[in-house]
Amino acid sequence: MSKFSTLFALGALTLGVAGTPAAQAAPIHNVVLVHGAFADGSGWRAVYDSLAAKGYKVSIVQIPETSLAADVDATQRVIDQQDGPTVLVGHSWGGQVITEAGADPKVKSLVYLAALVPDVGESTATLETMAKYPAPNDDVKKTADGKFFYMDPTKFRENFAADSSPALADFMAHSQVILSVEAFGTPAKAAAWHTKPSWAVLPGADKTINMDLQRWMYERAKAKVTTVPGSSHTVFLSHPDVVVKVIEEAAGK
């Protein structure tokens, strides 16, 4: 074989049919979903069913919300079970969790849904008490012992899941997983978004986390943002199709 032929053959191995480098990463098929405060993993059902039908391996973390470390550890155990590159998805408080857990080498991209996106040294308390980004309401209360936060059940649908049915919102209000005050005040030890690509979904009618705060955090993280006009905080319930599309983008599909 001539020198020219050899070089041509090597080039053919390096480039795909359309000239795309063969070294381009294959689409990711592992997806790990992390719920937020005042919710649990059952809310992911529509997102899970859609992704699973498309061939993804989907895992749902049930975080205890007793401390940030406990939630990161719970997420890490699920990441450890993945068989390769993974998209890590977090809703609300789950964003605080995936920002730290996402430092794991298996995690290749991050998806934030109406989520907190801290930097190293920032806690949820740090972010949500910034004067220029006040909380949309004061309906998050402390338990009698002062150790946990919960959303006032009478305000749950209005503030958290306005576009869900009254029956579903009522059930969620009375099955919510409450968040420890300790977790709320614990700063992040790592911020995976500094080194990994990020996507975000911004609900256009969020009454749980200040929408301007979300915009600021997403811009800082250089996340690719999809805005969903009129959606409440639980965008994964009301617009699972949008959420799935964003996850697929993060997976390289």
Automatic annotation (TrEMBL):
Q: Which domain of life is it from?
A: Bacteria
- What is the protein name given in its UniProt record? Alpha/beta hydrolase
Q: Which UniProt keywords apply?
A: Hydrolase
Which source organism does the UniProt entry give? Luteibacter rhizovicinus DSM 16549
Q: Which Pfam families match?
A: Abhydrolase_6
Q: Which PANTHER family match?
A: AB HYDROLASE-1 DOMAIN-CONTAINING PROTEIN-RELATED (PTHR37017), ESTERASE_LIPASE_THIOESTERASE DOMAIN-CONTAINING PROTEIN (PTHR37017:SF11)
Any GO MF annotation of the entry:
hydrolase activity
Instruction: Determine if 4Fe-4S is one of this entry's keywords.
Output: no
Q: What InterPro entries does its record include?
A: AB_hydrolase_1, AB_hydrolase_fold, Sec-Metab_Biosynth_Hydrolase
Q: Entry's Gene3D superfamilies?
A: alpha/beta hydrolase (3.40.50.1820)
